[in-house]
Write a structure and sequence with these properties.
351 residues; alpha/beta; seven-stranded mixed β-sheet
């Protein structure tokens, strides 16, 4: 278990029923074993991957598994059995890079574009809201992620909520769907949001997630999107739309800001469409998260057109925009802002 015949960063998940109990050695032996297994799990996991361990229900076991600096503790679930046991879930952190690397974005103490802690923040908020609004047991619920990309977010939500049935994940990108299909927690297929809404599977889903894609749905199809989703949901099911505000909080050049505003409908559009489709208890929550990023890296992201906002600009126009953002600043400076997500929830109440 401490020397797996696998290459580095090759797995999305590691699961192990670790030795525990009086017949499996003294506590100090098991502690060293758990530490070694955690290090090996961190080696073979990709960034964002999960490790789930069944072990004895004592705090020293959790401490040993969480001692690996490349793993972050996600949850500890105590199980009622003949002896005290627990399920410990950890997530692989991205590898750190040197401060001078042009590939690093400083978000808290982690590297990445928005980074692992932000994704953890969104995952936790999403699960908290679903848990608050649903009254069913996890093994009874079926989740659909519309526009779920490679399925990593849906798979993590599936794990965090403790769902039994595989989640459904759809996306128009075939390569992303192929990656999603390799995740055991998912059933993935190629479809955009509008196509998914018209699939006509009545009363199928308890939870539907539409994360950061609804602004791509043509304005004249938004109402049909929610009508179709409403028909596919069970009574008492919860639909969650995660989107961004019309006025972006990011350090954009003025022309890019206008493009963003023109393409990002106000959240009231989605609220109204949900109500018209028949949903009740429509509510909006605002999630904010502080971002700190080196100016040089932020400008490199703009040049790389990392958002579709920048796709319509020529190289010359983009370079002029970069100069506008950088005016009066030093390349070693940081840009700081609050990322803002708007979470719109609605319930299909029992009629």
């Amino acid at each position: 278990a401490k020397r797996l015949p696998l290459r580095d960063a090759c797995a999305d998940a590691v699961v192990s029923d670790l030795p525990f109990g009086k017949l499996c050695g003294k506590p100090h032996f098991r502690q060293r074993l758990y530490q070694g297994v955690a290090r090996e799990a961190a080696r073979v996991l990709r960034a964002g991957g999960k490790a789930v361990f069944l072990c004895c229900g004592r705090s020293h076991a959790t401490d040993a598994l969480a001692s690996c600096e490349k793993l972050q503790l996600c949850s500890v679930e105590h199980l009622t059995m003949e002896i005290e046991v627990m399920l410990v879930t950890l997530q692989r952190l991205p590898d750190q890079k040197d401060d001078d690397s042009t590939d690093q974005v400083e978000l808290g103490n982690f590297a990445g574009i928005w980074g692992h802690p932000f994704e953890m923040f969104v995952e936790q908020r999403t699960c908290d809201v679903f848990s608050q609004l649903t009254h069913m047991k996890p093994h009874e619920m079926l989740l659909a992620d519309v526009g779920g990309g490679n399925g990593l977010f849906a798979a993590n939500i599936h794990t965090r909520l403790g769902l039994l049935h595989p989640a459904v994940c759809c996306d128009p990108n075939e390569e992303a769907v192929e990656e999603a299909r390799r995740r055991p927690a998912l059933r993935a297929h190629v479809a955009d949001a509008s196509a998914f809404a018209q699939e006509g599977v009545a009363n199928a889903f308890d939870l539907v997630l539409i994360k950061e894609v609804v602004h791509l749905v043509p304005a004249d199809k938004v109402e049909a999107l929610y009508e179709g989703i409403y028909g596919q949901m069970k009574d008492g099911g919860v639909c969650m739309t995660i989107t961004r505000p019309t006025d972006p909080p990011y350090p954009l050049f003025e022309a890019a800001r206008r493009v963003w505003t023109s393409r990002q409908p106000p959240v009231c559009v989605f609220e109204a469409a949900m109500r018209k489709a028949g949903f009740d208890d429509v509510d909006v929550r605002e999630w904010r998260y502080p971002i700190r990023c080196r100016l040089a890296r932020w400008l490199a992201l703009i040049r790389a057109r990392f958002w579709s906002t920048f796709h319509g600009f020529s190289d010359d126009e983009l370079e002029a925009g970069v100069k506008e953002v950088a005016k009066g600043k030093d390349a070693c400076d940081f840009v700081e802002f609050e990322e803002c997500l708007l979470c719109v929830t609605a319930r299909k109440n029992v009629k």
